[in-house]
Specification:
It is a single chain. This protein is an alpha+beta fold. It folds into three domains: 44 residues; 139 residues; 67 residues. 47% of the residues lie in helices and 18% in strands. The protein is built from seven helices and nine strands. It has a six-stranded antiparallel sheet with strand order 1-2-3-4-5-8. Strands 6-7-9 form a three-stranded antiparallel sheet, covered by helices on one side. Helix 4 runs antiparallel to helix 5. The protein is elongated, with a radius of gyration of 24 Å. The mean pLDDT is 80.
Length: 266
């Protein structure tokens, strides 16, 4: 993504430099420059979270549902789209809306073929506007009461997976294996770590989900803690039952804080 941003920036600079002041090339160059800026911002965004698990009350976390005997657990919430992406959506919506107006003006001046471009720009502007509105609403809802937490909670009894479509508690006895994996290779896209939990579905306790799969994939890069912290937590406490006694306690939180501090960006 970084090289894409750099390449498009050079192309945009060349178009603007040789535009001779003509409106069409200037608009094209400016649009490409904005696209390049978007690509560069996405490229420099930290691929992994730098947050820490936090000790929470499971009764509050699960809204009163008793899926596990744990009263406290260590929550690693999901990362959410930040202010930067919402701001980019707003800027793109405004720029494309301006391009739509320009295209309509050109079409009205006797070049009806410009109306096709206006229609395309209008659709793109609406899509970016929709994304911006969703980002704004999500940000506002984050601070509102009642938002359902998504992520992963690790406790003495087991692991709780919290997702919009399901909430599943996996007792340690039902977790058969914790395996490291990685996303498939795709051009221009960084490969991301995955953690696969091989489980015995009959031992899982679910809410709002009829059938628990035999393998649950945790996309570690989408969590606020560093993937290595997530991996170490799941792997260590799965393989060492005697170590689970500190989970749900201040001592356990201190340990997870220490692991997180070692991997926090400097």
């Amino acid at each position: 993504m970084l090289w894409i941003g750099i390449t498009i920036s050079l192309v945009a600079a060349a178009i603007i430099a040789f535009s001779g002041g003509a409106a069409g090339p200037l608009w094209s160059g400016a649009t490409l420059a904005l696209f390049a800026l978007s690509a560069l911002l996405v490229a420099v965004r930290r691929p992994f979270g730098g947050g820490r698990p936090r000790l929470v009350d499971t009764n509050e976390l699960l809204n009163g549902r008793r899926l596990a005997p744990d009263t406290r657990a260590h929550l690693i919430p999901e990362r959410r789209v930040g202010l930067t992406m919402t701001a980019l959506s707003i800027v793109w919506a405004l720029v494309l809306a301006g391009g739509t107006v320009v295209a309509v003006t050109i079409g009205a001046s006797g070049r009806p073929q410009a109306y096709l471009g206006a229609a395309v720009l209008a659709v793109l502007s609406v899509l970016f506007g929709y994304a911006a509105v969703r980002g704004i609403r999500a940000g506002a809802h984050d601070g509102a009461r009642g938002r359902r937490t998504a992520g992963l909670a690790i406790g003495r009894d087991g692991v709780t997976i919290l997702r919009p479509e399901m909430t599943v508690h996996l007792p340690w006895s039902s977790v058969r294996a914790v395996e490291a994996d990685i996303t498939d290779q795709r051009r221009g896209i960084r490969r991301m770590p995955l953690i696969r939990l091989r489980i015995d579905p009959t031992g899982a306790v679910s809410a709002g989900f009829d059938r628990v799969p035999a393998t649950i994939t945790v996309q570690a890069a989408q969590l606020r803690a560093h993937p290595q912290v997530v991996w170490s937590s799941l792997r260590t406490f799965h393989r060492t039952p005697s170590a689970r006694a500190i989970l749900g306690t201040d001592e356990g939180q201190t340990l997870l804080d220490a692991w997180s501090a070692e991997l926090s960006p400097r």
